[in-house]
From TrEMBL:
Pfam families: ABHD18. It comes from Micrurus corallinus (Brazilian coral snake). InterPro entries: AB_hydrolase_fold, ABHD18. PANTHER family: PROTEIN ABHD18. This is Protein ABHD18. It comes from the Eukaryota.
Length: 327
């Protein structure tokens, strides 16, 4: 239930202050700090409507936008003057009156607080939209600046009816801001990594959320081959030095020696050749890769399995980096 605490008459508008209990506190108890459970809003309506319609725009706060003054002064009042459109300003969880006592300004204490904020705003926006519809207001829309625009996008995408959306200075994802942008240093990535490895529930939950879309990846490979230039078929123009192939062993192996090594079977190596290989140990790597016996085949198979295992570990690390992007 929504409660109106105060109604204030202004020269150009009427300002209503209200509150309600966030639905997220009902669906996921104890996930929100006690200060954030009560959602507070301010409703700025014109004194007289100039048509049969009563348009309302819900404004969500951007980063660092505490309380209502900024949105009321810079957005709501000009909209009443120019378009006779009402504005409903919802205060973000963790901001203004909803800020936890031990939180410093806009700095959220935990990464999870950002997800809680988003989930709460989606449900709270839906509550306000239902209330506005019930009270006969419309058409309805949503907007926000920066983080407010992103949160408004989340809220509108979860509303079952067509709804105008104007996200300002926003984008479809906020991942770059936290991974490579201005807030990348504000996240304690080492602590997150430690929690991920020490508490298996994180890994179990995250891995279930990850999906490998092999069809699209395969199609991308086909498209690449189909559209690649014909010069790719000829590798003679490529300058591949030994360092690229990890064969840079300091002292260069003479071509005659390598040809001699490759032309003979390992079981029939002369003692002089074996002496040479013992003296120059790094060259053994080259020979061991070429010659194969039953034992070496088994070792090679083990190496393949080890490489596959390392590749899986690498893919998991890639997934972790991707989840950082999601956060």
């Amino acid at each position: 239930f929504l409660h109106i605490n105060k109604v204030e008459e202004q020269s150009d508008c009427k300002i209503l202050d209200g509150h309600f209990i966030s639905p997220l506190a009902h669906y996921v108890p104890d996930i929100m700090p006690s200060e954030s459970i009560t959602a507070r809003f301010q409703f700025i309506v014109p004194k007289r409507w100039n048509s049969k319609y009563k348009p309302v725009c819900i404004h969500l706060a951007g980063t660092g936008d505490h309380y209502f003054w900024r949105r009321r002064t810079l957005m709501a009042r000009p909209m009443i003057k120019e378009a006779c459109m009402a504005s409903l300003l919802l205060e973000n969880p963790y901001y203004g009156y909803r800020k936890p006592k031990d939180q410093l300004r806009s700095c959220l204490k935990n990464v999870s607080d950002l997800f809680v904020m988003g989930g709460a705003l989606v449900l709270e926006s839906a509550t306000l939209l239902h209330w506005l519809e019930k009270e006969g207001y419309g058409p309805l829309g949503m907007t926000g600046i920066s983080m407010g625009g992103h949160m408004a996008s989340l809220a509108v995408s979860n509303w079952p009816k067509p709804l105008p959306l104007v996200p300002c200075l926003s984008w479809s994802t906020a991942s770059g801001v936290f991974t490579t942008g201005v807030l990348s240093k504000a996240v304690n990535w080492r602590e997150l990594e430690k929690q991920y490895y020490t508490q298996s529930v994180y890994e179990e939950e995250i891995i279930q959320m990850l999906e490998y879309c092999g069809t699209d990846s395969f199609k991308m490979g086909q498209d690449f081959v189909k559209n690649s230039p014909s010069s790719v078929d000829n590798l003679s123009c490529l300058d591949l030095n030994s360092g690229i192939l990890h064969l840079d062993i300091g002292n260069k192996v003479r071509s005659s020696e390598v040809g001699h090594c490759l032309s003979r079977n390992r079981n029939n190596l002369s003692s002089s050749t074996e002496e040479l290989l013992v003296q120059d140990a790094p060259k053994m790597q080259c020979v061991n890769q070429i010659f194969s016996t039953s034992t070496s085949n088994a070792n090679f198979s083990n190496e393949q399995n080890h490489l596959i295992s390392r590749k899986n570990d690498s893919l998991q690390r890639e997934s972790l980096r991707f989840m950082k992007g999601v956060m």
